[in-house]
């Protein structure tokens, strides 16, 4: 019985020493005015969400690959940073990871930041277009985008260029395995 307690104590000590994985939470500063947010943002545009998909991208500030939602917009008006008819903006999955809850078919005013890709979240002033009247009054009407980009041309982010090579390696490995098994059965 004493031995069991020592094992339990040892396991408890190991758990305490491990400490767990590092986690990140969403912590927003108080919201800025539309003009301040406009100045801080790298892109400001309005558009309709045409598609949302999961993707993996490297987060520079934490050095890890994390899953994000990629949101494809059909751009109606642009004020800053975007001139394409379709753009992809990345965000988290939910508010806990600062993700903005975009919905397909709805229109938004988007404040985005350049982090090798366009990124936004709940800490920006991104909002449904129906709630953006004060912002649009502060910026003016904006202009329509002039560079045509089809939504299908945008990178999905899910395709791995090494995938075909991985399939070939698996097939070669399987054939080699069958060859070895056949040789052993012939002996």
TrEMBL record:
The chain crosses the membrane at residues 162-181. It holds the Pfam family TIMP. One of its GO terms (cellular component) is extracellular region. InterPro entries: TIMP, TIMP-like_OB-fold. Signal peptide: none annotated. Its main location: secreted. It is found in: Secreted. The keyword Transmembrane applies. It comes from the Bacteria. Keywords: Membrane, Secreted, Transmembrane, Transmembrane helix. SUPFAM superfamilies: TIMP-like. This is Tissue inhibitor of metalloproteinase. It comes from Parageobacillus genomosp. 1.
């Amino acid at each position: 019985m004493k031995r069991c307690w020592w094992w339990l104590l040892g396991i408890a000590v190991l758990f305490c020493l491990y400490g767990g994985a590092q986690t990140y939470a969403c912590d927003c500063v108080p919201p800025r005015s539309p003009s301040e947010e406009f100045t801080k943002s790298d892109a400001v545009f309005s558009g309709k969400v045409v598609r949302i998909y999961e993707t993996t991208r490297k987060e520079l500030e934490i050095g890890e690959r994390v899953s994000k939602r990629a949101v494809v917009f059909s751009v109606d008006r642009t004020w800053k940073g975007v001139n394409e008819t379709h753009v992809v903006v990345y965000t988290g999955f939910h508010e806990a990871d600062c993700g903005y809850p975009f919905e397909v078919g709805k229109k938004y005013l988007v404040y985005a930041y350049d982090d090798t890709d366009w990124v936004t979240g709940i800490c920006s002033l991104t909002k449904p277009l129906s709630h953006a009247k004060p912002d649009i009054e502060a910026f003016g009407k904006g202009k329509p985008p002039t560079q045509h980009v089809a939504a299908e041309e945008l990178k999905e982010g899910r395709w791995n260029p090494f995938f075909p090579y991985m399939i070939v390696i698996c097939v070669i490995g399987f054939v080699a395995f069958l060859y070895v098994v056949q040789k052993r059965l012939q002996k």
